[in-house]
Amino acid sequence: MMQSADLPDTLAVFPLPGALLLPRSRLPLHVFEPRYLQMLDDALRTPQRLIGMVQPNPCRQDGSKLHQIGCAGRVTQFSETEDGRYMITLTGVSRFRIKSEVDGFAPYRRCTVCWKSFDHDLAAACAPDPRFDRDAFLRLLQRFFEARDMCTDWDSLTQADDELLVNSLSMLLDFTPEDKQALLEAPCLKTRRETLVTLIEFALCGNSGKDPLQ
């Protein structure tokens, strides 16, 4: 596990709408734009091999057009295709808060960041969610998948631990970038699980044509 002393003050950031990375979770990415190929090459030359995933925020008035909170991932797998593209896997290390953007000659964006509010992200596991009713959650999830005509490996879902289950669904389900940001900023597994349930319930109400408030 990475220690807080290993985390850099400056981080390359990859603004990608809808791509959510969470601590201790894995995000596969296909990198092909020249500026992000350069970002990856530069990251691989550093001891930490970190890249910051951030949701764009077009409503920001400060010109950054980025959400303030993102999540840094360590490049843990990568392979190069014959035409020079990369298939990589980022493993979530810690969330961060953007302080300012760094001017420079790099073709990609770099920011000074603060990690202090997210020390617990570096733990080997998150705090448990003792009130998590897995059976009720899986029934709700089954309704959601049936409404969307989606298939899944139910054996894997039922065997996954609580954090892996909640985080994987938060990352994989097709929510809006703002919804993904809310899941990222959830302070603990319990809050993320509650946010995820709310999003699924609203999606089901939308599919049924019913008022979500009923």
TrEMBL record:
InterPro entries, alphabetized: Lon_prtase_N, Lon_prtase_N_sf, PUA-like_sf
Keyword Transport part of the UniProt annotation: no
Biological-process GO terms, alphabetical: proteolysis
GO molecular function: peptidase activity
Pfam family, one: LON_substr_bdg
Keywords in alphabetical order: Hydrolase, Protease
PROSITE patterns in alphabetical order: LON_N
Domain Lon N-terminal stretches: 11-204
Name the record gives this protein: ATP-dependent protease La domain protein
Organism: Ruegeria pomeroyi (strain ATCC 700808 / DSM 15171 / DSS-3)
Phylogenetic classification of the source organism: Bacteria, Pseudomonadati, Pseudomonadota, Alphaproteobacteria, Rhodobacterales
